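User: Show me sequence and structure for the first protein, then do the same for the second.

Assistant: Starting with the first protein.
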Amino acid sequence: MRPDLQPLAPTLFRLRIDGGPAHLLNSYLVLDDDGVTLVDTGWADSAPVVESALRALDRGRDDVRRVVLTHFHEDHAGAAAEIATWGDVQVIAGAPEADVVRGTVAGLLPRLTTAERAIHPEPSEPPAGPPCRVDLEVSDGDHLAVGGGAHVLLLPGHTPGSLALHLRHLDAVLTGDTVAELDGEVILGVFDVDRDKTRRSARRIAGTGAGIAGFGHGEAVLHDAARRIREARNPFADPQP
């Protein structure tokens, strides 16, 4: 079965990760002259899907140079530990939650709204992936040699150390779960630890002016992404008193 790959730009591809309860879960592959950067890894059993995507792009395991984790949740960091063993792979995470990815510190639980509880049970433990080493802890404003140069945005809200990557040369931003797409609408991320911070972080993403956006969940936006992110609402918010 061929992987579900969508080109967002000449060297940027969205990979759909099937399985599990997550809505339209995505990882991203960025192709550079020095190899491939994988942004998020899917579930713990998702490594074969990533490998099939590499083959479809005429690449292989040995071409993976970096894994960038937008946050520690199991649907995004689940296969990182396995993929990190494929070769000379650098694992990158936001500094505030690098130890959560390593498994030495527990992450924070999301604070669910009434509407979110209706679609997802209240977690009793933080939804972390299997422990994985972190080789590079990044902070807000750092730059990575990805896609012609990627700017790191550290975006607390969904988790304390969530991050996004602004790929300026590709006019694209990869948002993690700070923003999502649902039924044709760009929305604020759900299952957050702090919704007010998520809203502010989404405005920072919109401030990149990117035309293309790839979300942790949902369909990508290929035109006018910054405006749509700026206008994003939270359909799962509790009613205001």
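Switching to the second protein now.
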Amino acid sequence: MIAAPTVALANPPACGPAPQILFVCEAGTVNSAIARELFRARAADAGLDVRIASRGLHPEDHLTPVVAEKLRNDGVDAAREPTIALTTADIATAKIVIAFNAAAENPLLRAARRWNVPSWGADYTASKAIMDTHIGKLVAELGAHPQAGCATPPN
């Protein structure tokens, strides 16, 4: 049997919906919210078409005024979106789920990627550096593996 030749389509098929990236932490106001905003900016800079959400296992405002001010000075508004409790539907619709620290122990998040980030209040500089590294790797991963069947954007 002779294999059919591969033919490039003149008009590649349209992409499906942008993949959902979901960040989850205990309260939903620190790690997941900070990651959401940092990733949003980096994904936009990289031209990635993604949907981004953050959730909390037990929503509660844990962002201290000191950390909030440092974030604002860095151009990050972690309170940009309301804090929302995690649901199973959130997990089901996400392509990638990132769970921070103790949140990764929740049974709903057993398949999530685990990112450990130290307390922002205890060491803002170290937390920011670790988060930046994680975000950079995720942006690179998504940029290297565009959605299957989608046209490659022009350079």
